[in-house]
Task: structure prediction
Amino acid sequence: MLNYWWVTRPKRKLNSIPEVLSTFAEQALDEEWQGQRGTHLSLEEALEQAGLKRIGERRDQTGGGARTYKAWVVSLGLIFIQESTGKLKLTLAGEAIMAGESPVEVLKHQILKYQFPSSFSLSRGVQVSPRFKIRPFRFLLRLLSDSRLGYYLTEEEIAKIVITEAETEKDECYERIVNRLLQFRNYGDSCLSPDFFDLYKPSKGQVNPAYPFRHLTDIANTIVNWIEYTQLAKRNDDGQLVILDDKRDEVQSILSVTPPFIDRPEQHEYFQRKYGIDPKHSKDTRNLTATRTVTHKMIAEQKIKQAFISESLKTPIGKITTAIIDKIVDMTGIDAQLVEETLLRLYPRGAIGSFMTEYFDMAFRGRDDATEFELATVELFKNAFDLRAEHIGPQGLTPDVLVLSDQEGFIGIIDNKAYSKYTISNDHRNRMVHNYIPRYRSGQQYPLAFFSYISGGFGSSINAQIKSIVDETHIHGSAISVSNVITLVDLYSQRGYNHARLKDILSLDRQVLLADL
Result:
């Protein structure tokens, strides 16, 4: 029995969950699972061919790798085994991801509901101790919101204190964990229990003397990766996990409501269907007992969906175009007419939210992947906002991206900065004032309407720095965090925004806030 929090981790990050789930849907949906070694092996092979799982020799031919990945998607409430038939089914959350909904929004919903006990935590081979009755990720957000802890946690603190000692969400337990974390910051490992490794031993094997805490730090690292996937918190330059500045209000809103625990975790189908309710539903009323005859067309549609989801994670798809149809035809070998009909029916508005996981990550990678971030911004402004956009950064003494609106007759220039707390240095200011803006304010097809910086986050002086550039150049400007770019993309289609509205948002002469969108 595991005497600490546990999350399964065939991969430590959740970025590939949509592709793994679509592979399950193509290979095993509506198939019996228990004891079906052939299904397990074919699924394992499909995961390997898709590059989602390392290719192994699989000498024992048991399909154990597929079962590990199945446990992963079960633990997140995306699939379940139907009791009456033994067949694998998608939950509503699983269906939402397969339908092209933003995987970040769906999985954030699931991560915040993740609880001990659950059908997964009680399952054979896992068996997390019944002393835990807690939603671990809500508990972590509460700790990250506590001024006594400096609004941060480290992976080491999560590994050695939180996942071993935080049992419930009661105030008494919470206060004890806060005090224990402060003790640990003052006294280090000396404040740990003398029988720490007896109490919290690895699930398999013995404690490695060279890395005695490794089994716990591995879990803590995965937990931090999961919470980063929600785009609510991120490791800063010092490696501390902190809530993103522009997500503090959202986190407070989340913590202001305490939903009930999901009951009956020992009943797999009941629990999974309740846990797997996506953000757009309040209950799962589907009748899944009717048997369906699997046709060649249904198999082809699953292949099309799998290929489309894989592609949507790599590039922003705002609508179904001939280019994306041709791409899916090449990937699947399926007739173009069926591909077009299927994509237009299932994904009439594209699936731009799928790409936003990758775009968010790019904004924090630093200079090493700067060009990738710039190119992604070009594609995003083309596909999400229907602007003409060019990558002009490589031309020298130019901003990264030029955007043009034929609809409203303006141009804008964008500089991408892949930092968590970007401030405009004197050198960057001079480039904008003396090179970028003069180059594009005259002699262009349309007048220059604005300049804007896109970054992971900004320093406290950003508004004064923006205003200084505006005052000297008399060109409107802004700074917008990647989180708010993602929100703007969502709202742009939902609220029927146009290029004039987009220009107004990016011309505020200060940082763009959530309230401005």
DSSP finds 21 helices and ten strands in the chain. The longest helix spans residues 171-187.
